[in-house]
């Protein structure tokens, strides 16, 4: 797991959410526009922006829009200053990568699955911490869960990115244009959404899901001591098995076309992976457990990006549940186990299909999260770790 430096939330001074970040890529000789207008916190009354240094081709408008037409030769980062009505100032170093004509606009695509934990409402300054994580991680496409109907839009507006909010739970946020959006499905498909992202010269189909959470397989295996047959029956009862079957059925045309249009599947699956419950790990005394929510995507032609980059589940377990629940706090029919170790599992995923190449994949939190109930001031706004995968786009 990679630990990012902690974030300090200070109410008084005007400040950018982070003092260095990148905007979307530009192409030489092509008009460019992005924005930093939503990335300042503090007293933003009368806020204006200006270019304080950097390449001459870039203009910074008073509203924070970054515009211009880059030449073939591009030198150095941009320096942006924000000023409020009281005369307070804040500045940030902003990167814009300029790609040459004929080169891929996005040579590396960074993708994240990120559970917002009730829109970041469970920690102080949660929204700012979410934005800062997305900027520091330099992600391009994000599959958020627990977005509470508006957070996908609000995050995208702050970042100056594109978005699709599907119902009250899930969505997609993209640094690059979303050119197709599918409305929320019904029945088992209500937990999934799909968009098409355009990277200038390449389209990527992005699915994001949030599967059912109860009953929860690791609790059944570790507390309930269930047999494999009982575990499989409960996976069906939770809705996860019929949900992933229905989603993969809808994804079949996309996966079949993945050599032309790349495919990503992000999500909080609320289930472990069979690639982690192996003879080498012997989780809760079990030999391999064929958790359907991971077996079925791989059978359908998808690949688990984290396990491509980190094939040994003993050396790199990749735990995403949970950085703040080291012990079981009750519920799910297992209150007699309160105070026992919470099963730690990898339940958040970035799957892919097509000729993408995994450069790296990691699970990420920010700071050193304090466990519940002392989590309110955590730098990390979620109860899950995020998964961030970098793909090369050949």
TrEMBL record:
Its signal peptide is none
MF annotations from Gene Ontology: catalytic activity
GO BP field: carbohydrate metabolic process
Sequence ranges assigned to domain Endonuclease/exonuclease/phosphatase in this UniProt record: 132-384
Looking up InterPro entries in the UniProt record yields: Endo/exonu/phosph_ase_sf, Endo/exonuclease/phosphatase, Ig-like_fold
Q: Which SUPFAM superfamilies match?
A: DNase I-like
Write down the Gene3D superfamilies for this protein, in alphabetical order: Endonuclease/exonuclease/phosphatase, Immunoglobulins
Top-level lineage group: Bacteria
Q: What name goes with this protein?
A: Endonuclease/exonuclease/phosphatase domain-containing protein
State the taxonomy lineage: Bacteria, Bacillati, Actinomycetota, Actinomycetes, Pseudonocardiales
